[in-house]
Amino acid sequence: MKLEKDDLILLYRNMVRTRKLDELTIKGLQEGKVLSFYHSGQGSEGLAVGSAACLRKDDYLWGHHRGHGIGYLIGKGLDGKAFLAEHYGKVTGSCLGISGFHFAEPEYGALGAAGTIGSQFPISLGWGLAAKKTGKQQVVLACFGDGGSNRGTLHEAFNLAAVWKLPIVWLCDNNGMAQYTPIKDTYPKDDIADLAGGYNMPGVVVDGMDIMAVYEAVEAAVDRARAGGGPSLIEAKTARYRSHSEGSPDVSHTVTRSEAEIAELKKRDPIETFKIKLLKQGVLTEEMVDQINKEADEEIIETEKFSLDSPPPEPSILNKLIYAE
Amino acid sequence: MKQTVYLMAINEALEEEIKRDEKVFIIGENVQQGTFGVTSGLVQKFGTERVMDTPLAETAVAGAAIGAAMAGFRPVADMMFADFIYIAGDEIMLKAAKWHFMHGGKVNVPVVIMAAMGGGMKIGAEHSMCPEALIMHTPGLKLAVPSTPYDAKGLLKTAIRDNNPVIFFYNKGLLGLPGEIPEEEYLIPFGQADIKREGSDVTVVAISRMVHMALEVAEKLKDKVSVEVVDPRTLEPLDIDTIVESVKKTGRVVIVDEDNRRCGVTAEISAQIFETAFDYLDAPVQRVAAADMPIAAGFLEDYVLPQPKDIEDAIERVMA
Amino acid sequence: MKLEKDQLVKFYSLMVRTRKLDNLMIEALNSGRMAGFYHAGPGEEAVGIGACTFNMRDDDYLYPHHRSHAIGFTLARGISPKGWVCRHFDKNPGEVEGPTAEERGIFGISGTIGGGFPLSLGWGITAKKNGKNQAVLSFFGDGASGRGTLHESMNMAAIWKLPIVWICENNQFGQFMPIKDAFAREDIADIAAGYNMPSAVVDGQDVLAVHEAVEVAVQKARAGDGPSLIECKTYRMRGHAEGVPDVDHVDPRSEKDKEAWRKRDPIVLFKENLIKQRILTAEEVSKIDKEADDEVAELDKYQQECPVMVPSDASILDVFLYAE
Asked: Which are the contacts of C19, defined by CB distance < 8 A and separation ≥ 6?
């Protein structure tokens, strides 16, 4: 599907919103308002927003843990209120304020997030099985990082998704770092996409900092999955601008990543590069960019206020949550 | 004696054992940097062959350590969060625990699986567990749960020298806890409880971080009731004799642990006390443990995990 | 390395002895004089024997797999079969001469399929750290190829260039599940490319082909060039375990397929080859067969004379719970 002017502007807007929400969450953690962890997603907004834009609302989504998956949900149409409120431990949060940094928005096909990296593989496999059995041409967008790619669950799920021809798009956000460990020490080849061959599944590598490249690759894989063609693997090369989690050291093994190294990564910034492209194409003007940023700032203020004003959950809810009715 | 903190005591134990025995190495995700600091700084001293960073693959981390243990090494695998040992269930519960027994005593598995347990950081259901009962329930695994820098160092050194698989749970909530340790080398044998505070009215058996909570309560109540705090230090082997001796003296007992209440460590210790010291009890055993639900993150963590007030109430109940 | 005549004869003799011991177990279980499980492996002898007999040093590590309860591996490693036979009949073999399994780098077989991958990884680390050019031969079936432990272990072995030869004995059935419904590709060996690891597919009915492929991989491993994956195509002639239905999902397995594979019996193929090449005469072959029959009869008699393995004092079990 060719994207219209408005679609392109929306992609840009959603990346800006994702970045600002990320900055707000970092601020919240530094101020002690975010109660648990935050794993910033700066550098992967193009991948999140661009891939989620290919989905229907009833498609399943496992956004991986950079930015705690919010970029994908914003790309799918959600705002940041329930996300931030959850991080603030408030009852208006996505999970009533008791999940910390995990996140579930079943209405948007996001049935949960895990504390164990690699658990997305078998669970997404189950969603793919459900999608196939339901017969409504839903697809699953299952995201993982280069760190997650080392888990054995990948193999079990990739194999069965291929054997059963399930409608799953496996999307690897390869930002080159798994907590403190660089990809060169965790995988013997340059491209994780090369794993696809072992499962008779297409595997492509895209520039994850280029939202249009992401969109096109994911769209092709989603179309294939909806048509019954089975799973695909897309590896997006992205960047992680910040440390693994806020407050933890930004090191590769034990060596601090240099400012020059980070500055180099930021030259490929998905938001900046897309903005320049759209300005050049005349899709955006400087005034429109300012307006989009201003609106995003206003939204952030509102989001923060919403979370601050919300109450924490009552302890009495806990007992009701152990078993479903 | 010298001053240190809990995580440095663990770090020192690792350093001394790596130096002492060339068969010892550390393996795990990000152990070179050290997620919780317990392994930090060792790679600079001993190199990457002795402190091995791995891909994110908990099953293989545990399995590789267990395999190398059978073949003559003494690996220490760090699983990062204790919750993650579930990912390596086959390797830890079925291989490490059983292969010595299953093979008629012909194979030894001298591995240490260590991981950070415990709440207090409000980081939710999959990062806060104390899965002690899971290990204590599995024959063939030893389990150390140190509460102080002194215990942490002495028990870890013993764990590394043990010819059996030992699960060593250090507590996230105690990492910065100060304490004294001897300048010279020392070991603490497994199966020896430590009386952390002497008292005469009520015995509080407390584990890991809960020891400090119990001591805090004991101090608070000292004018009204004399509380004895017993720290088992290892749950397998469990020094039930010291606990029973204390119960014989006080006639009243409260057991405090951060794992779930149902089928938990408190249930097991309670059953053993009823079996062996029933006649000495002046009141039914009281238990303080985590509520039987996943651990809530955020503000409600405190409602799931034991709090000082819960211990106080339990003491009041046995004294009534 | 070209094999000498006596080595070829040894291959034949090992395969025949393995087959006959397998038959003993099948007979004993089906006649009710032996209890428990037995997972027979007639027709698959060439894989373990071809791989292990002349490619391994005494101090190498081996993870066998569960077909024929690893008797082929046991014999190939020069371990007496007395213990193996007695265990199946719940008898105490007493002191058995020769090396133990542990002394030949065999620490056990996992009760969970796929459990061998991470343990072998650990032995690979051990071998590398020991610095004595030891190698690890780690076997798995097509059934285990779906386990995630494969991915974690093969990936890490490749990153660290560990001296491991992963050998898949693809007999095309994981319990009742045909491999075509369980694995996404024709060749399991194809997954090796994802780990930058050399791989080969060989005819698992040809003991020499297996030997040669593994020889190359073991040399690579000892030279520090890292792991390899070898897939041996073979066929499971019997049910998953004795006494369970021999079905493909729910349907009986095709007699036509079985017949085609029976014609490719590794022992028959190798025997014909030896006779054709005038390495053995038909009489010499008969003599080897007869010796194997006698050995098996001896072993059966031996186990009958051994005491039943019921400890008079169950406390020996406590002794096994923890090492000293």
From this structure: C42, C45, C267
| Residue B103: band (very low, low, confident or very high) from pLDDT cuts 50, 70, 90 | confident
For chain A, list the strands marked E by DSSP. 60-62, 140-145, 168-174, 177-178, 181-182, 203-207, 232-237, 251-252, 255-256
At residue C162, the pLDDT reads 98
The string of pLDDT tens digits covering residues A31-66 is 999 998 899 999 999 999 999 999 999 999 999 789
Please state whether beta strands B166-171 and B253-260 pair in parallel, antiparallel, or not at all (unpaired).
unpaired
Q: If interface means Cβ-Cβ distance under 8 Å, which residues of chain C face chain A?
A: 146-152, 155-156, 158-159, 181-185, 190-197
From CA B131, how far away is CA B120, in angstroms rounded?
15
B100 is known as an active-site residue: no
Question: Please, what is the angle between helix B149-161 and helix B6-20, to 10°?
Answer: 30
Three-state DSSP class for residue C314: coil
CATH of the domain at B242: 3.40.50.920
Q: Which of B87, B122, B125 sits opposite A35 (nearest CB)?
A: B122
Domain end call among B129, B157, B181: B181
Q: Which CATH number do you get for residue C106?
A: 3.40.50.970
* Average pLDDT in chain A: 95
Q: What is the per-residue pLDDT for C320?
A: 72
Q: CA of C276 to nearest chain B CA: how many angstroms apart? A: 44
Range of the domain at C295: 5-309
CA distance A190 to A173: 14
In this prediction, residue A232 carries a pLDDT of 98
Residues of chain B neighbouring A187 (CB-CB closer than 8 A): 55
Sequence letter at residue B96: A
Split at pLDDT 50, 70, 90, the class of C66 is: confident
Q: How confident is the model at residue C245 (pLDDT cuts 50, 70, 90)?
A: confident
Q: Which of B244, B240, B265 is nearest to B137 (CA)?
A: B265
Q: Which amino acid is at A228?
A: G
**A61, β-bridge pairs:** A141
Domains in chain A, CATH or no CATH each: 5-311 (3.40.50.970)
Proportion of chain A in helix, strand, coil states, percent, rounded to 5: 50, 10, 40
In this structure, are B163 and B199 located in the same domain? Answer: no
Report the pLDDT value the prediction gives residue C317, as an integer from 0 to 100. Answer: 66
- Dist CA C179 CA A77 (whole Å): 42
Specify the pLDDT at position C308. Answer: 87
- How many domains is chain B built from? 2
For residue B260, the enclosing domain spans 194-319
| B186 part of a folded domain | no
Residues C52-64: what's their mean pLDDT?
98
CA distance A270 to A175: 13
Residue C314 has a pLDDT of: 59
Cβ–Cβ below 8 Å for C149 and A152? yes
- Residues A183-232 have pLDDT tens digits of 999 999 999 999 999 999 999 999 999 999 999 999 999 999 999 999 99
Helix or strand holding residue C139 (H, E): strand C136-141
Which of B181, B215, B249 corresponds to the end of one domain? B181
pLDDT tier at A137, thresholds 50, 70, 90? very high
Contact A156 C146 (CB under 8 A): yes
User: Closest by alpha carbon to A237, among A149, A144, A174?
Assistant: A174
pLDDT of residue C36: 81
- Determine, yes or no, domain membership for B279: yes
Report d(CA C214, CA C226) in Å as an integer: 13
Our count of domains for chain C comes to 1
Q: How many CA atoms lie within 13 A of A197 on its CB side?
A: 13
Which pLDDT score, from 0 to 100, does residue C112 have? 86
Other beta carbons less than 10 A from residue A164's beta carbon: 16
3-state class (DSSP) for residue B27 = strand
